[in-house]
Specification:
This protein is mainly α. The chain folds into 2 domains: about 1-45; about 45-260, Orthogonal Bundle (MetI-like fold). It is about 85% helix and about 0% strand. The chain is built from 10 helices and no strands. The radius of gyration is 23 Å and the shape is globular. The relative contact order is 0.11.
Length: about 260
């Protein structure tokens, strides 16, 4: 038995080492393929990593154009996401706990979520104008629906027997939420929050690309008009790093919360 446990621990460690090696190998492989692509297609179409990182260095260190646009974009993302979280959780909890409201509102929520949202941006532009407000509102509109849907669905799927046990122990409404509802919906809730951020981020960037005077999306479209490929890829790299970092953080928090719940 002890030998089996030791073998299981060693196998688990080997697996973790292999996963870490794989994670470290992927960026190297991407850079190698990028360089090969640059050689095959030419640097006019696909600039080399060296040229791209030189432009990225200029944006971060020398001229600093990247910091200004990054600051504007992240302010819009943060506000849009925060509003989406607040509204999404409130609406999701209300619809999840109230069957009548859920059955009335759920078809509308799902149908609006299915609409290609980029087609609705002119409405946001008309209401909020070219300023930050239209991008914040568009990011909110993208991010709020997955939070509502997953929160509502998670609460709806809680086994009724759990709530009956809580009532039989005469738990207050606050303790029912804290000790029964919240632990039961935690995995879906974290998934909704993560998807909400990703979509809010996409919504802000799309808004900046469509109509803006600042931000990474605006800078991306301006560079595309000038066919400045080094700058385009630099901005894409920054957006990718932000998205990967936030998602890694969310996965880490989600894993810790789920492990704590099981413990």
């Amino acid at each position: 038995m002890a030998l089996w446990k030791a073998t299981k621990v060693i196998t688990k460690r080997k697996r973790e080492i292999l996963i870490n090696l794989g994670v470290m190998t992927v960026p190297i492989l991407v850079v190698v393929l990028w360089q090969l692509g640059s050689i095959i297609f030419g640097e006019l179409i696909l600039p080399s990593p060296l040229k791209t990182f030189s432009v990225l260095k200029d944006g971060l260190v020398k001229s600093g154009w990247l910091f200004s646009d990054l600051k504007d974009t992240m302010i819009e993302v943060v506000f849009g996401y925060l509003f989406a979280v607040i509204v999404g959780l409130m609406v999701g909890f209300v619809l999840g706990m109230n069957r009548f409201l859920r059955e009335v509102a759920e078809p509308f929520v799902l149908n609006i979520y299915a609409i290609p949202k980029v087609t609705l941006f002119p409405i946001f532009l008309f209401i909020f104008g070219l300023g930050m407000e239209s991008k914040v509102a568009f990011g909110f509109f993208h991010g709020v629906f997955p939070i509502i849907i997953l929160t509502m669905g998670a609460i709806k799927d809680i086994k009724l027997v759990y709530l009956k046990v809580g009532r039989s122990f005469r738990l207050s409404a606050l303790r029912v939420y804290k000790e029964i509802v919240f632990p039961s919906i935690l995995p879906s809730l974290m998934t909704g929050l993560r998807l909400g951020f990703n979509l809010a981020f996409i919504g802000v960037i799309l808004g900046e690309m469509a109509a803006s005077r600042s931000g990474l999306g605006y800078e991306l479209m301006k560079s595309e008009g000038a066919f400045y490929m080094e700058k385009i890829i630099s901005i894409i790299l920054v957006l990718a790093v932000i998205a990967i970092t936030i998602n890694y953080f969310c996965y880490t928090v989600e894993g810790k919360l789920i492990r704590a719940r099981k413990a």
